[in-house]
Amino acid sequence: MTNSPSNALDIVGVRKSYGSLQALKGVEFSIPRGEFFGLLGPNGAGKSTLISIIAGLVQADVGQIAVLGHDTVGDFRHARRLLGVVPQELVFDPFFKVRDMLRIQAGYYGAGREVWPWIDEMLERLDLTSKANTSMRALSGGMKRRVLIAQALVHKPPVVILDEPTAGVDVELRRTLWQFMSDLHRQGQTVVLTTHYLEEAQEMCSRIAILDRGEVKALESTRQLLRRHPFRFLRVKLAGNAALPEALRELVASESDGSIELKLETGKHPIGSVFDALRDAGVAIEDVQTRDPDLEDIFVELTR
Amino acid sequence: MTPNQRGFVTLLKKEVMRFWAVLGQTVTAPVITALLYLLVFAQALSGRASAYDGISYTEFLVPGLIMMTVMQNAFANTSSSLIQSKVMGNLVFLQMAPLGPWEWFAAYVLAALVRCVLVASAMFIATLFFVPLPVHQPLAILAMFLLSAGSLAVVGLIAGIVSQKFDHIAAFTNFFINPLAFLSGVFYSVHALPPFWYTASHLNPFFYMIDGFRFGFFGHADVPILHSIAWSAGFFALASAVCMRMLITGYKMKR
Ligand SMILES: Nc1ncnc2c1ncn2[C@@H]1O[C@H](COP(=O)(O)OP(=O)(O)O)[C@@H](O)[C@H]1O
Ligand SMILES: [Mg+2]
């Protein structure tokens, strides 16, 4: 395998089955150091399974994974020191207070007092300072989510994986988390983000893998992915809610409150030809808008 | 300290803190329960002759009660800690950390031993007010204590590994630990048993743990002390091998 330490993660031929269900069917890709990487896919695609295998929580049936060149099985101590994973589920130890919990977690990684200032800094940045001496069980869901993030970072890992950190959190917290993740990335950490919010991925991630039913369906830079499908959308509102001419029907992508969205393939359906067809049919146009495809359109296209 | 050692020490400390914060439940309560047994049985059976010459029934009873309580608490400490973190899901924090199977094993078992030292010392001191015990061979007492508490801590770890919910642990306790503990000669000398039960007792590792421990105090026992040490050490080694194998392969822990 290409155990190049220039890659934050090397994933080679990873398969995992649960009974007859193949959760991962030979997943293979690498994430270069310093990237902000998006791991996307519909529910049940296998994202969390892949992350759990990277973290050492689940054993792959076959395949290898290396974190900065260190195999996650053969050299698990090294690999795990370089890795911080924020699990999808909101798990916590009800027994401890926030700061104690973080210090214990740091201790597992062999870190002592030297990281205490870092722990306090994280508490500050995640807006948890006032909760430092609160028991974990007394925190709200959003606070627990933030502690979970701090917990993954106590040992300052150069590679950070966040499994749907923004799922089900309010707008304000989501913004705090975006800021926090951007800061990590700017400081040189490799960030791998799983999310359901495709605008979030489009905004934050420089490269994206789309996983569907255990297979990698796309793996490229966000920009390339967005350009990959040469089409754009034209939304027209017709005067008096007139019907669309027969010839344009096959282009309809969606319809909502009186306006119709048409999907136009570049080169094949010039916008001018749509206007010509409407004029020939004697239909007047009330309003018109165009837009480029976003990640959501491409996601739907790839995971259909 | 190397990072690995610090990881181990942290886990050990965390496991000690877990029971330390609730000493009332983890030390005081079991000691009181055992003292109640002592009061009731000593009262009810005080006229009864002891198994050994010159030793009252109450005296005979104390080492067995201490050992039974130690075994139950060793088992409870490791098994409840593991099942709680499994059920709550927070075991992942430990599973994602760079700790190896030996560190898990040693930290969980040592923390249980610390609890057992507290339980045993508290019981020993409390019973001094009722019956001062002789101490015939401190080394035998120590060896039997370590082997027995260690063994049950390891069995508790195994139970925690194979269980997925609290019910499984309760079943382990009710159908395995408690019967073997009660049928191990805590309340009687096995010489008083009918032949079948006499023979069956000699296949129960808990019997040797209690018998050997009792020897350390009185210098008398049902079987020679070396037998007790050998049986207990053998059981500890076997349980440890099974447990380590589970930890190394990730049995029931890694999906
Ligand atoms: N422990 C498990 N036992 C059985 N099936 C599982 C287990 N974990 C995940 N799966 C299945 O594997 C598939 C992938 O799940 P998951 O990795 O959680 O997907 P995602 O995170 O992309 O939503 C799903 O069909 C899920 O039901
Ligand atoms: Mg998931």
Explain the overall architecture:
The complex is a heterodimer of chains A (304) and B (255). Chain A has 304 residues and is α/β, with parallel strands linked by helices. Chain A folds into two domains: 7-226, 3-Layer(aba) Sandwich (Rossmann fold), CATH 3.40.50.300; 231-303, Alpha-Beta Plaits (2-Layer Sandwich). In chain A, 32% of the residues lie in helices and 30% in strands. Chain A contains ten helices and 14 strands. Chain A has a six-stranded mixed beta sheet with strand order 6-7-8-3-9-10, sandwiched between helices. Chain A has a four-stranded antiparallel beta sheet with strand order 2-1-4-5. The mean pLDDT of chain A is 93. Chain B has 255 residues and is mainly α. Chain B has one domain. Chain B is built from ten helices and no strands. Chain B has helices at 3-20, 23-44, 57-88, 91-95, 101-128, 138-162, 166-182, 195-201, 205-218, 225-249. In chain B, helix 1 (3-20) runs parallel beside helix 5, helix 3 (57-88) runs parallel beside helix 6 and helix 5 (101-128) runs antiparallel to helix 10 (225-249). The A-B interface holds A 18, 52, 55-59, 76-78, 80-81, 83, 85, 87, 89, 91-95, 104-105, 107-112, 151 and B 2-7, 9-11, 13-14, 18, 21, 85, 88-90, 92-100, 250, 254-255. The structure holds adenosine-5'-diphosphate and magnesium ion (MG). Adenosine-5'-diphosphate is lined by residues 18, 21, 23, 41, 43-49 of chain A. Chain A: Keywords: ATP-binding, Nucleotide-binding, Transport. Chain A: GO terms for molecular function: ATP binding; ATP hydrolysis activity. Chain A: It holds the Pfam family ABC_tran. Chain A: Residues 9-238 form the ABC transporter domain.
